[in-house]
Write a structure and sequence with these properties.
The protein has 13 helices and no strands. The protein is mainly α. The protein folds into three domains: 177 residues, no CATH class; 85 residues, Orthogonal Bundle (Arc Repressor Mutant, subunit A), CATH 1.10.10; 77 residues, Arc Repressor Mutant, subunit A (Orthogonal Bundle). The longest helix is centred in the N-terminal third of the chain and has 85 residues. The radius of gyration is 37 Å and the shape is elongated.
Length: 362
């Protein structure tokens, strides 16, 4: 084999080797993602089951209390009805007195459900002072039907009403849950920033990919959907205070706000690194961040708002300290010193904006 053939063979071998390594890497990433997804789904299922059991217990406790309250109310109304019927003649008077009344009421309370008990209380007027004796026909008719095993039209109607009320309450609850998602945490906002940068506009299924990136990165118990991500991104753009003059300006302001959030998250990592401040009290990272902030928040912004944003961007420094540092660097450059190169300004800000702390003036 000549030298050219040998080179070709080596190139083919290397390509095959690189391709195999790349395929192995992709397979490992896919396996890791599948494992993380399965673990997350299992944790979500366990959490949902836990919440479901907790809700069942809460609902059961509430129903017990409500049932006890409704039973006591029906007993009080029956006693009041007994007193009123004994005072004057009434076609549905309990001939056997209090023993007969208690027997009928207690029998009913053991056989019927909460909604039906509430329905009987409502028919009787719900309060002793407004007792409707004409409803005794309904009460005693229900007892006779249940005792004989016949279907009570009144109790059946009350059961249907209760079911409809429960369905309506469930729909309202589901609607509220759908309209009130959990607020975004700082780690989620930082992940959204990274994802938006990592997957720029124009990519296929961009927002599905962004949502998957956030959910996989943070292993969220309640995964964010693509609609959640879009709404959050839009809300950041809309929360800039004054309405932007153009869509481009709105997007720039949104990116600025998101960069501030990202910078705050990155600062947590940077805090673990020990940096020695210079004689002015500034670290190299803070000086670099100041230079970056001056580029991100350009002069088109309102001056006070701009320096406020710059102060938020540079971790550990206020807007006054940032303005004073900028003024110091410009003065150093004009005097022929090396200083930090800040090429984003063509003229200094007014003294009012750049005024720093007294101790910072040179």
């Amino acid at each position: 084999m000549n030298s050219l053939g040998l080179l070709r063979a080596l190139a083919t071998k290397n390509n095959d080797k690189n391709l195999a390594a790349e395929n192995a890497r992709i397979a490992a990433e896919e396996e890791k993602l599948a494992t993380e997804t399965a673990e997350r789904e299992k944790a979500e299922a366990e959490e949902e089951e836990k919440m479901r059991n907790a809700n069942k217990k809460i609902t059961a406790d509430k129903e017990k209390k409500a049932t006890r309250k409704a039973k006591n109310l029906l007993r009080k109304l029956a006693v009041k009805a007994l007193e009123m019927t004994e005072e004057g003649g009434h076609e549905f008077k309990w001939k056997g007195g209090i023993e007969e009344m208690e027997e009928e009421v207690e029998f009913l309370l053991k056989k019927i459900e909460l909604g039906e008990i509430i329905g009987l209380c409502e028919a009787l007027g719900n309060v002793e002072e407004k007792l409707d004796l004409s409803a005794l026909k309904t009460l005693r008719g229900c007892y006779a039907d249940v005792k004989s095993g016949a279907e009570s039209a009144f109790l059946k109607a009350e059961k249907v009403k209760t079911e409809k009320r429960n369905e309506a309450a469930q729909k309202v609850l589901l609607g509220k849950l759908a309209k009130t998602p959990e607020p975004w945490s700082k780690p989620e906002l930082a992940a959204l920033v990274k994802a938006v940068k990592k997957y720029p506009a124009g990519g296929a299924n961009r927002w599905e990919v962004i949502a998957q990136f956030i959910n996989t990165l943070l292993c969220l118990p309640e995964p964010r959907s693509k609609d959640d991500c879009i709404k959050q991104y839009e809300s950041v753009k809309e929360s800039s205070g004054k309405p932007p003059a153009t869509v481009k300006a709105s997007e720039a302001e949104a990116n600025n706000k998101m960069q501030v959030e990202e910078k705050k998250e990155e600062a947590k990592v940077e805090e673990t690194k020990e940096e020695v401040p210079d004689e002015t009290g500034w670290t190299a990272t803070q000086t670099k961040d100041l230079q970056e902030a001056l580029t991100v928040f350009n002069k088109e912004m309102e001056k006070q708002a701009r320096w406020q944003k710059i102060g938020e961007f540079v971790v550990g420094k206020t807007k006054q300290e940032c303005a004073a540092k900028y003024k110091e660097i410009r003065a150093n450059i004009k005097a022929g010193g090396s200083g930090a190169v800040i090429a984003v300004e063509d003229k200094p800000h007014s003294p009012k904006v750049l005024k720093g702390k007294k101790g910072k003036k040179k």
